[in-house]
TrEMBL record:
Keyword Hydrolase: yes
PANTHER family for this protein: 3'-5' EXONUCLEASE DOMAIN-CONTAINING PROTEIN, EXONUCLEASE MUT-7 HOMOLOG
Protein's name in the database: MUT7 Exonuclease
Keyword Nuclease (UniProt): yes
Residue ranges with Basic residues bias: 554-564
CDD domains: mut-7_like_exo (cd06146)
A GO molecular-function annotation: 3'-5' exonuclease activity
InterPro entries noted in UniProt: 3'-5'_exonuclease_dom, Exonuclease_MUT-7-like, Mut-7_DEDDy_dom, Mut7-C_RNAse_dom, RNaseH-like_sf, RNaseH_sf
Domain of life per record: Eukaryota
A biological process from GO: nucleobase-containing compound metabolic process
Matches recorded under Pfam families: DNA_pol_A_exo1, Mut7-C
Length: 694
């Protein structure tokens, strides 16, 4: 708003006998204030709010204020959201009679204005005097879960009541139609968004957000455990990819002493096992005998007489002879070190934190099977060329805390990730770091500070032609196709990873030998993949774009996170790998916005709109569009691609040199736009602003 307009508005207030009544009269007769954005009505209202602070004498009280408050209240349910706070402040609605306010909101609710009633309740802090189920039910039916979250955000008691209500609706015996029937004429009703699965996800999100004990929602927790139980039976008896020991661990921790789940366990066992096996597993999981069919009593008696553990099902997993079909660690077993003390760990860090070192990094945690909260890392694997270190994080954190040096571990990990002279190899490192931050809160900013990182997940976004996966599956007779890191290992090194231990309980100690070998292999294979790709990228059909990101001389200058996709690093041997290079180019010649044409990848619509305001020729992808559509448009129309994150690697290989630019997705649209304009030397003049149709 211009200074001249502000001064004119304030002079207008000074001339009015009653500025507060004058504002209401203006808003009641105005037509433009009902639109979105900063209308003239909004400017006048916010200026009055500021003007009152300098002229407190205009504030009303008594009967006159009550009349103004009644008029203002009537306006609140119709006005734009940005006018709510200024009007509530100007007319001191927080001081109005609470029963009168509740009555007004109730009237809105009865008229079917559920959203408006909820927003006004939040603004006036009326929630403690309202029925949380009554207020939130129609909002959930209209798929307004975010508004429901806001409604209970500041009231722990209401959070618990809401969660208990949602959990009741998730009881299998509860008929959800009993709720929906009451709101049959509801506008914008979305029945597909109101079912047990959607409600269950909402409950888990709210439990985590509000840090509420999950015991408050037994129905949702039981249903999630039941899905886990079914998944475990599928992995063991249908897919046949889980060992008996892993399966037994997870079954026991999932079912526990829960009678309802024990009943479902028995039903599943009866479908998949013979009588002897059912009796054995029922005994193993402490299922009460009375829950078993009568025919099982005799089998249980036999087990008691034998008083020994027998093998229940034949081992369906691969035999030792098939080990040759999977990736094998090329280092001796004695070079794998399981570290549980700080004395051992300090020796590890001395070797790892060496300039020029290349480290394969991986992490393991107990599968959560969709339960509340992020998983906590149970094992951190660091692989060097000749040895692998497995760090028992829970034990080390416990020791550090007992010694009063709680930050000791996070300090070392931050040193590793922030040192540009050490190359860290990972696969999907963002997820690993997220779990690491959940394990050790001091590491919550580690991802922002990391340098010298190569995430081999980017390779999966490229064409890596190695061993044909279809051919190799047929040869090896593997039941399930490889995916993720295992598929990349198969492509590059010829054999996949043995993922049998992936879903094992990584918190249980001592770790089994199979777990130790699996964990070491997961980290060490990254070194071998990296070295192979650096030495012979052409064999895997890698273009120069990916080669540049993996090879070359390590820069000593610290790099920001947005440059990591393009970071160069040494090979595991410490020698410089040979690959195509380009000399630093001079800044491009200046151009005008009208000459600059771009296509913005999905999720960058804000940047696109900002550039269009400055006169740039912009095309925007929708969020549902495939990233590859940006490359098609760029080639057909001669546009520059603006993208961010992993798609950058793929898209830049599909257009000419310098025709794809990666912006920092964590920055706001304005900062992104400035970054783009500076990189392409676009010169914006005042006449360019709003020169294109918005």
């Amino acid at each position: 708003v211009s200074r001249q307009l502000k001064e004119e508005i304030r002079r207008g207030f000074a001339r009015l006998e009653d500025p507060l009544a004058g504002l209401l009269a203006m808003l009641e007769s105005s037509s433009d204030w009902k639109g979105k954005g900063h209308s003239l009505g909004y400017c006048i209202t916010t200026e009055l709010q500021l003007w009152i602070k300098a002229h407190p004498a205009v504030l009303q009280s008594g009967t006159k204020l009550k009349k103004l408050q009644a008029r203002a209240l009537g306006m609140l349910s119709q006005c734009p959201a940005n006018l709510l706070d200024p009007l509530i402040s100007i007319y001191q609605l927080h001081t109005a009679d609470r029963n009168y306010l509740l009555e007004h909101v109730s009237h809105l609710y009865l008229q079917g204005n559920y959203k408006e009633a909820a927003i006004l309740s939040i603004k006036l802090k009326l929630q403690p005097d309202q029925d949380v189920e009554k207020m939130c039910t129609p909002l959930l039916l209209q798929d307004k879960a975010n508004l429901v979250e806001d409604y209970v955000a500041e009231y722990p008691e209401l959070q618990r009541k809401l969660l208990q209500t949602l959990d009741t609706w998730c009881d299998p015996s509860f008929n959800i139609r009993d709720i929906t029937r009451l709101y049959q004429g509801l506008s914008r009703y979305k029945p597909e968004k109101f079912n047990r699965r959607v409600l269950s996800k909402l409950v888990f999100r709210l439990l985590e957000k509000f840090n509420v004990d999950s015991a408050l929602c037994p129905n949702v927790i039981n249903q999630r455990h039941l899905r886990t139980l079914n998944y475990l039976f599928y992995k063991r008896f249908v897919e046949k990819t889980m060992t008996e020991e892993n399966w037994a661990d997870h079954i026991q921790s999932t079912v526990g002493e829960n009678r309802w789940l024990q009943g479902h366990l028995v039903q599943s066992l009866l479908r998949h096992c013979d009588a002897h096996a059912v009796a054995r597993w029922a005994q193993h999981c402490r299922v009460p005998p009375e829950m078993l069919p009568p025919a099982m009593a005799e089998e249980l008696q036999k087990l008691h007489i034998q008083d020994r553990v027998e093998e229940v099902t034949k081992a369906d997993n691969y035999e030792a002879s098939k080990k040759k079909d999977y990736y094998q660690l090329p280092i001796p077993r004695e070079n794998i070190h399981f570290l549980q003390t700080w004395e051992e760990t300090l020796q590890c860090w001395e070797k790892v934190l060496q300039p020029g070192q290349v480290v394969g990094v991986d992490m393991e945690w107990k599968p959560s099977f969709g339960m509340v909260g992020k998983p906590r890392v149970a094992l951190l694997q660091l692989a060097l060329k000749d040895e692998v270190f497995l760090l028992d994080l829970p034990r080390l954190l416990e020791q550090a805390e007992a010694e009063g040096e709680k930050e000791k571990l996070s300090h070392f990990i931050q040193m590793l990730y922030s040192d540009a002279a050490i190359t860290k190899l990972g696969y999907g490192m963002s997820g690993d770091l997220s779990s690491l931050a959940a394990t050790c809160s001091a590491l919550k900013d580690a991802e922002k500070q990391m340098q010298g990182v190569v995430d081999l997940l980017a390779v999966d976004k490229q064409k890596v032609n190695g061993l044909s996966p279809e051919h190799s599956h047929k040869e090896r007779g593997v039941r399930q196709p490889e995916k993720g890191l295992s598929l990349l290992v198969q492509h590059v090194l010829g054999k996949p990873l043995d993922k049998t231990e992936q879903l094992s309980n990584w918190e249980k100690r001592p770790l089994r030998e199979e777990q130790i070998l699996y964990a070491a292999s997961d980290a060490y294979c990254l070194l071998e993949i990296y070295e192979r790709l650096c030495k012979d990228p052409e064999s895997f059909d890698l273009g120069s774009d990916l080669t540049d990101s993996l090879v070359g001389k390590q820069s000593k200058k610290p790099r920001s996170k947005k440059q990591l996709n393009k970071q160069e690093a040494p090979s595991p041997s410490g020698k410089e790998c040979q690959g195509p290079r380009t000399e630093p180019s001079r800044p491009p010649a200046p151009i005008y916005p009208q000459e600059f044409s771009v296509v913005c990848d999905n999720m960058l619509q804000g940047l696109g709109r900002y550039l269009r305001c400055l006169g740039v020729d912009v095309r925007l992808l929708d969020n549902e569009d495939d990233h590859r559509k940006a490359a098609e448009i760029a080639r057909q129309e001669g546009r520059v691609i603006l993208t961010s994150g992993l798609p950058y690697q793929t898209l830049r290989s599909q257009v000419g040199e310098g025709r794809c630019f990666s912006v920092n997705c964590s920055e706001k649209a304005k900062e992104q736009a400035l970054q783009v304009l500076k990189h392409f030397n676009v010169q914006v003049s005042p006449s360019d602003i709003f020169s294109r149709c918005q």
